[in-house]
Amino acid sequence: MAGKKKRGKKTTASRGPTALAKARGSGFEEYFADPPMTPDEAKEEKEEIYDPDLPFAERMQSCIQRFRSRRRLQADRGLYFNDYLFLGGVDCMPGAFGGLSQQELKDLTPAQRREATATDVIWANDSAGAKFYNGDESDWSVDFTGVAAGFFSGSLVHLSSFEHKRMLEGITTVENFLRYVLQHDVCPEYEDDVKSALELCKTATVEWPMIRKLYSLLPGYFNLAAAELFCPENTTKDSWSFQQFTRPENFDATSVFFTAFALMDEPQLFESLTTKEPSITWEFTCTLELVQIFRPDDNIIKRVKSLVIGDKAAHQVPIGKAVFKQGVIEDDWENPIVDWPINEELMTLFFDDVLLVNMMLGMKLTATICELDAGLRFVKAVEIIVPSFYVYLPQEMMRSYKEPKETDRPAPSVNDAQAESAEQED
Fold it and tell me: What is the pTM of this model?
């Protein structure tokens, strides 16, 4: 019996021009730099592949394919990159020439082989259907910043299970691709937009960890004290949004609540709270957008730290203010427009300073607010918090979309269960 012929190793050249050598890592290492191109390779990119006279879609499709050959998109990185491209209207399904035999592929040039086995297509015509970018400017626009924001806002959170390390991996994958686009001068007409998208990557690496921290610290001492004093028993324990928060031992809600106002420069509110026993007059849920933060000044912080009750340190926390306007958090539900619940344009809420440190202007949250007859409002529960760059892309709703097709089969109905079963099988 003849021995099996050893399979030869695939050379770098066989994987196409500028392909990443196997000894070069994945291309996502911290100090990784693409090796310089030869004069012929640089000329080919400038005058043929990324010629400004070529349609944008053609240049970008070549860029995506060449980027894949220059990077090892293994495990989660490939998943993140595919989802990012989908939100941008790129078809990442297997190419039409995936059925070529090894011999047929071998007979092609490296460039032809890359084109034949490509899994990324930017149709830019009617072949895209309703699901992908079709070049129609009335339905689509080129927006690198918007696509990155949409990916970081929704898809990345679900794909990474909100884990910091995995989210960072998704952000750096997109950042690496955008730098590749700039480095190779793929679309100079959108250079400013690409740079803006790169800045957004930096913003995402800062804001998402802050929001993770914010979730773990909510409701904070002040809002916990207010809820325990004025809401039904076990309100904070039953709220799923505060499950990560640990109630301090020997927590004195009355001391925390009234001491906060005694030490702050809020004399009118303090008087209203102490002259009679406050009670909740109204409870409502609304979406807020942060427009201003007032952290406690040094004098208040010193007063809080030096506070002693009896012969023991009080362990109080400094309190500041956050000012919000009406906000909107879009998603795939058709939510009715809700009127702003108060007469004023802005709403002021009080938070522990450690919470204010982890807030950023422009962030949005949907929360349940309680209002006392003394005029004070406090947070009872939080449904969701999103970063300042949050955006919901309509493309999210096209994930399971299938193009309609003509059929002679009668439509499913309650009178024909077999038709319904056949429809599901299709």
Answer: 0.84
